[in-house]
Amino acid sequence: MLAGIKSAFNNNYVSAEDQGARPLIANRTAAKGWETFDVVTNADGTISFLSAANRKYVTADLNDHTKLIARAATIQAWEKFRRIDRGNGKFALQAVANDLFVCADMNLGGVLYANRPAASGWEEFTITALSSPNPGTPDSQPSTGFVVTEQQFNQIFPSRNRFYTYAGLVAATAAYPAFAKTGGHAVERQEAAAFLANIHHETGGLYHIVEANKANYNHYFDYNSKYKVVPGKQYYGRGPLQISWNYNYGAAGEALGLPLLSNPDLVAQDPAVAMKTALWFWNTQTGAGTMTCHQAMVQSKGFGETIRTINGALECNRGGGGAVPNRVEQYKKICAMLGVDPGGHLSC
User: Fold this and answer.
1) Which end of the chain is more exposed for a tag (fewer CB within 10 A), N or C?
2) Any idea which architecture 2-129 has in CATH?
3) Residue 291, C-beta contacts closer than 8 angstroms, at least 6 positions apart
């Protein structure tokens, strides 16, 4: 929910001053860019605030006199607050970091601190939901239109191969405009997180461009497929979801308008093509499951169904351990970064 937060004492909006570089302060009469926040409901019932000024989470910084400032990339303890109802539309915020209440200190110009043992006037706030951004407010999505920023992409894949680029991913999303843009704020971010978690697992953090086990290279030939094997070409795993087999290269190439059957190496040569093949599978193929990965996420069937579609025959219904918990853990980490609950049905 995009919202403006007001001090109930002076009726001013809370602002992430200087594009989030300075502590929060209740000193504004209108909610524009610096005064708007995405209110995130966490799985444990606490809430967090994502500043529209810089797309960072508000933290109660115990290393800086408990000042509230929008500087955190992910939600951890210092970024969580308990919302305490005070009646008449007012509420108090209790910081999980130290169990103290947030105060708009009027002796210090309205700067917000998490330093009060009890709540009264200066510790009371109201929230005004904004149906659409006010003039000057950054879009709730990054300017690329994709729900994940380049900074977040780099944080998710710190050791990625330079072949894989954020620009390549964003360019590829144009081929499947419903991807991560269906179902509203939470579902869009859950789908993006699910896709990124799975490609992280498949490629070792976007490190591998081609299948590591060369002993399998001559295995992926289906001579009964309508997509005929081109002499001299191999159809081993390539790209973020390690697309393999001649029938997948043929079908993906047909859907994307690319000569992948005759030139499968394109998937390992062009970052956008590589991402497009992954999104082709994600959005159109049921694999080992009963639905596409896109359907699984937008229909709230759970992250576990994406695992089943991608590699269910080898990974699902096999008890604990192995690849499934690794995929799930990565998904949960990315959801936390994007400020969204991961939902249920995480395993398969």
Assistant:
1) N
2) Trefoil (2.80)
3) 299, 301, 305, 309
